[in-house]
Amino acid sequence: MTATVTSTSAQPARAGITFPDGFVWGAATASYQIEGAAREDGRGPSIWDTFSRTPGKVYAGHTGDIACDHYHRYRDDVALMAGLGLASYRFSIAWPRVRPDGTGPVNPKGLDFYDRLTDELLGKGIDPVVTLYHWDLPQTLEDKGGWANRETAEAFGDYAEVVYRKLGDRVATWTTLNEPWCSAYLGYGSGIHAPGVKDPAKALAAVHHLNLGHGLAAQALRAAGAQRISITLNPCEVYPVDPESPADRDAARLIDGLANRIFLDPLLRGEYPADVLEHIGRLTDLSYLQDGDLKIINQPIDVLGINFYNPSYVSAKPGAPGALDYPGSEGIAFRPPAGPVTDMNWPIEPASLTRLLTRIHRDYPGTPLMITENGAAFPEGPSADGTVPDQRRIDYVDGHLRACHDALAAGVDLRGYFLWSLMDNFEWAEGYAKRFGIVHVDYTTQQRVLKDSAKWYREVIRRNGLE
Question: Which positions are catalytic residues (predicted)?
Fold first, then answer.
């Protein structure tokens, strides 16, 4: 993409808008970020248990051992969701809770937790949306090479069928992977996420094996009778700093290939982009690409999940070191944010979400879309009267919901919106230092308090729109 977007914290004030009938309103979480109970009921260690215990990897040595204690408090949390009026709740299954070593015996107590959670949700009229993998790979699989090893993709397909056999009679929507970009590039490229590997060749092998794992899981789910199959990506618009510069446009195309097309094209077209293959072929042996893999990856899906937080701006800069999470990006510079940012220092540009959705709609026609994550970290905590004013989060979500509505008006088949996140939680390498939730969590007492954004979102859901 070559258009330039002006940074803004929100779109200009407009008249009220209404979303289509049946538009799904939800919220999302992930297992390691909220469950806790890291050593209970037979759960095995994950790469995040190991990584968070490695000195210097996670802020202040924080771990997910307790997190939000959702494993014990799920009934209260589901009641909270019902009070907000959520139609759907997206949660992830902890692979090491279900199969502690990744491939061996199933742990019945682990599956029973998700069985109880599913029933609790349905009892409150909330549709469960299951994500099978949100980064907590069993450590035993990582010891064998993790996602850089083809066997992990094969194990993932088997694990998907195990979970479906337990929950498939009540769960309609199955998401295979969450943000494989992060699993591959942050886990095996830059090493800032678990398992903390810094090896561009392994990062690129992980990309393919994650794609393959999705395909194998989708096949297993479909054969078992799954109604709706999905995958969640975190694509972003990549803009050249100078749209008139051929070198900047080339830089943007390269980063777009590594960020977006390396996942979208094999998933939805059954092929890797030629320019991306040429690029990664200069960096690593492509022998991990086997005959038949692309056919497996290119399984029909019923909805594509989009996690969106911010765009990227890049320019050609000879001598620039590039970024470890984009293998082979030497000579490319990433522009720092030029406008308002969240507590993660991520730029706030709602218009870029509209552009992204319309681009995917145009380039991959016939694919229904769902916003499966969108939200912002801001540090506001309880005030003296016990309330949690967080107007900046309200403004952020308002702007991005209007961007979604603009995409709908442009003809995009957008089915719903899941806010990230239901509650403050363990924010990966940032530990408990960053708060994305619309519900404030006191990690000492585990008290939950609705932020102003939660009350606002409840009204958005009630209205099916914005004032």
Answer: 179 (proton donor), 373 (nucleophile)
| CA separation for the pair 161, 452 (Å, rounded) | 40
33 is in an annotated binding site: yes
In angstroms, the CA 11 to CA 47 distance is 40
Helix (H) or strand (E) holding 66: none
Active site residue 373: yes
Instruction: Tell me whether residue 35 is annotated as binding.
Output: no
**For the chain, percent of residues with pLDDT exceeding 90:** 97
Q: Does the active-site annotation cover 151?
A: no
Contact 164, 128 (CB under 8 A): no
Tokens of 197: 């590997």
The 10s digit of each residue's pLDDT in 377-393 is: 999 999 999 999 999 99
Asked if residue 139 belongs to a known ligand binding site, the reply is: no
Residues 351-371 as b/e (b if ≥16 CB within 10 A, e otherwise) read: bbbbbbbebbbeeeeebbbbb
Domains in the chain, CATH or no CATH each = 17-466 (3.20.20.80)
Residue type, 412: V
Identify the active-site residue in 120, 142, 349, 373. 373
CA distance 344 to 205: 29
Task: Name the pTM for this structure.
Answer: 0.97
Q: Which helix (H) or strand (E) holds 34?
A: helix 31-34
Residues β-bridged to residue 177: 133
Q: CA-to-CA distance for 432 and 426, rounded, in angstroms?
A: 5
The single residue of 142, 179, 237, 349 carrying the catalytic annotation is 179
Binding site annotation covers 427? yes
C-alpha distance from residue 42 to each of 65, 106, 191, 331, 437 (Å): 14, 10, 28, 48, 29
Q: Spell 247-283 as b/e; 16+ CB within 10 A means b.
A: ebbebbbbbbbbbbbbbbbbbbeeebbeebeebbeee
pLDDT digits (tens, 9 = 90+) for 264-323: 999 999 999 999 999 999 999 999 999 999 999 999 999 999 999 999 999 999 999 999
Q: Could you report the per-residue pLDDT of 2-34, keeping only the tens digit for each?
A: 343 333 444 455 679 999 999 999 999 999 999
In the numeric block, the tokens 């993932």 are attached to 156
Q: Is residue 235 within 8 Å of residue 258, measured between CB atoms?
A: no
Beta-strand pair 332-334/312-316: antiparallel
Amino acid at 263: F
- What is the phi-psi region of residue 435: left when phi exceeds 0, alpha when psi lies from -120 to 50, beta otherwise? beta
Query: Does the annotation flag 147 for ligand binding?
Result: no
